Amino acid sequence: MSESDTELSAEEMWDPQVARWRDPEGDYVLPRALRSLPQPWDEGDWDRIGDLPRTGERVAEARQVVTELLEDPELAPDVPQPPSPGLLRHVWEEFHQAVGERMPRMSQVTWAGVDELVREWRGRERLYPLQRHVADHVEVAILAMIPRLRDDTADSVFRWLTLDSDPGRFADWAVDTAERCVIEDIGADAAIELLGALGSPEARAALERLSVKPGGPASWDNAEAAQGRLFDLGNGEAERS
User: Fold this and answer.
1) Tens digits of per-residue pLDDT, 153-173?
2) What span, in angstroms and rounded, lies between the C-alpha atoms of 88 and 102?
3) Is residue 215 part of a domain?
4) Total domains in the fold of the chain
5) d(CA 173, CA 160)
C-alpha cells in the first residue's frame, strides 16, 4: 500500500466525534447570529449585495453585520480537522454548496433539509469513500460550514465597502473593524484591501501593525498580505510623486 493510500484510509476511517446539536428555537442548524442576518447578507448572493446602494442606512446595517460576526463566539466553533492530506475538506465544501443551493437563506438551513441531502447522496449510483464519510459524519461537515459562512459574509461586507467611490468616509469605524477581522482571520483578504483603500494614516498604521512577522497580531499569511498591500500603496505613492 502506498503512502497516499495510507493517508486516504486515515481520512476514510477518521471519527470526528461531533454530536448533533439542537437549537432551542427550532430545527435550525446555524447559530442565530447567522440566520437572523438581514437580506441579502443572509444569502451570500454577491450579485445582489454588490448592487446595494451605499446609503447611511445600508452602511450602518453592514457595520452591524460585521460587528456581530466578530463578537458572537458561536460563530467560531472548534472544528476537528481531518488527518492529512485533508482531502475531506474539499468534500465538505461540496456538501456546503449543495446545502446552499437547496436552502439559500441561512434561516432555511434545518436538520431535516440536511438529512434529506444526506439521503440523496447515499442514493447516488456511485458514492466515493470521502463522500460516504460526509454522509456518515454530516455533523462535522455542517460545523465546518459555520466559520466558512462567517468568513464569506465578512468578505462580502468589506468588498462592498471598498467599491464605494469614496471608501475613506468609512474610516472612522472601518479601520478598527477591519484590523480586528484580519487578526481573527475573518474575511481577512477583503479587510486588508479595504484598509488599503481607506487612504487614512490610521488605516496605513493598521496595515503596518498587521504586517509584522513573526510575532505580530495576524497569521503569517495575513501578515504577508498586509505587507503586499503596503508595497502596492508605496508604489502608488512613488508613481504619483
Assistant:
1) 999 999 999 999 999 999 999
2) 21
3) yes
4) 2
5) 15
